[in-house]
C-alpha cells in the first residue's frame, strides 16, 4: 500500500545544530507540504512543493529550508535549531494541482530543541 | 486570502450525545472546505470535503457537515458520539486554484461516559 513516512519520529537536539527531518511518500504525488503543530496555533504551513525542483515558502518559513530533487522526498532542514522550533512536524502530500485534492499526512516528528 | 476560525478550543460531550463542531471561513468565492481528524499521536485523516453541489456532505465514521454560504460556515455534526471519536478536529479552507489549504486551530473533543 502507498504511504507517507517521516523519520525520525522523535528527535532531541541542541540549540544551533543543523537538523534534517525526512519525509518520503510512495503515492507518486506531485504536491508535498511541511507543517508544524503547536498548542494554540493549530497547523501552520512551513514550506511546500508542487513538483521536482519547485519549493515555496509558507506562513512560518523563517529558519527552515526544503529541497525537492525527486518526487518521493521533501526533507525539511533547520539550519540552526532554536528553542522556538520545538514542535511536532507533519509532512503531507496530495496529487495533481488544485486545493481540492485530499492531503495525506505522515505520522509526525516530535522535535525538541534544548 | 482565505482564513478559517474554529471558535471552540475544547468541547466535552457524553457518549451517545449529539455533536456539532463549528467552523467559519472567510473567502470571496465558494471555497473548498474540509474537516480532518487527528487521533492522539497520529497524523491527520480526512473526514469529509465540500467543493460544490449538495450543501450537506457525508463523511466517514458517521460524520456529516453542512455548507451554509449565508453564514460562511461549515459545521461538523454527528448524531451519536462514540468514545473513539475523542480526538482533535481541524477545519480547513482552500481557494480555487492551487494555493495551499489554511487550517483552523482545531477543536479538541473529549467524550465522557
Judged by helices, strands and strand pairing, the structural class of chain B is mainly beta
Radius of gyration of chain A: 13 Å
Poorly predicted parts of chain A: none
Total helical elements of chain B: 0
Structural class of chain A: mainly beta
Multimeric state: heterodimer
For the biggest sheet of chain B, the summary is: 6 strands, mixed
Topology as H/E string of chain A? EEEEEEEEEEE
The largest inter-chain interface, given as chain pair and residues per side, is: A-B, 23 and 26 residues
Shape of chain A: globular
Number of DSSP E strands of chain B: 12
DSSP strand content of chain A:
over 45%
What is the helix fraction of residues of chain B, given as a range? under 10%
Number of strands of chain A: 11
Description:
The complex is a heterodimer of chains A (114) and B (113). Helix content of chain A is 0%, strand content 51%. In chain A, strand 5 and strand 6 (54-57) form a beta hairpin. Chain A has strands at residues 4-7, 10-13, 19-25, 31-38, 42-51, 54-57, 64-66, 76-78, 87-94, 104-105, 109-113. The N and C termini of chain A lie far apart (37 Å). The model of chain A has no long low-confidence stretch (mean pLDDT 94). In chain A, strands 2, 4, 5, 6, 9, 10 and 11 form a 7-stranded mixed sheet that branches. A 4-stranded antiparallel sheet of chain A has the order 1-3-8-7, with no helix packed on it. The radius of gyration of chain A is 13 Å and the shape is globular. Chain A has 114 residues and is an all-beta fold. Chain B is mainly beta and 113 residues long. Chain B has strands at 3-5, 10-14, 19-21, 24-26, 32-38, 44-50, 56-58, 64-68, 73-78, 87-94, 102-103, 107-112. In chain B, strands 2, 5, 6, 10, 11 and 12 form a 6-stranded mixed sheet that branches. Chain B has a 4-stranded antiparallel sheet with strand order 3-9-8-7, with no helix packed on it. A two-stranded antiparallel sheet of chain B has the order 1-4. In chain B, strand 5 (32-38) and strand 6 form a beta hairpin. Chain B is globular and about 45 Å long. The termini of chain B are far apart. The mean pLDDT of chain B is 93. Classes of the chains: A mainly beta (114), B mainly beta (113). The A-B interface holds A 33, 35, 40-45, 48, 50, 58, 90, 92, 97-100, 102-103, 105-108 and B 6, 32, 34, 36, 41-46, 49, 51, 90, 94-106.
